[in-house]
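Justification of resources, computational component.

The compute hours requested in this renewal are based largely on the per-chain cost of generating structure records like the one below. Each record pairs the submitted sequence with a full structure-token output. That output is archived, and it is also reused by downstream analysis tasks.
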Amino acid sequence: MKLDVRHLVTGRRLLVTVLAGGVIAAGGTATAFAASGDDDRAEQAAEVKAVQTAKISASDAAGIALRTVPGHVASVDFDDDQGKAAWEVEVIGKDGTTRELSVDTANGKVLSNVADDQGDDDGTDTDGTDDPDGNDD
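The structure output for this chain reads:
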């Protein structure tokens, strides 16, 4: 579930934008759920349940990320790929650098705060290894 919002601001406007995005994303998840296979349905149902039962909302996670890295929220994603549910918040800092923070959905703890250089196409992957096709994958 990806919520890609550009140039958000803090405060009430951020809250309204994140909530509206969440409603849209939930509708998209329901549509994807209806169109996918049985294995995907079970995985998506588990993800929807995890989002619904998260103690920390996407809006809360955005606020936590902005307190950690002042700037603007570019996107908020739900991620449970490594067995731990977290919000991945991409923040464009006041200095123009992009950071990706992972915020625990259970307690709001910042699990990671790393430079997000996915737009970098210098022939190295984000882990610093050579990437012969230059696509940073």
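The first strand starts at residue 2 and ends at 4. The longest helix spans residues 12-35.
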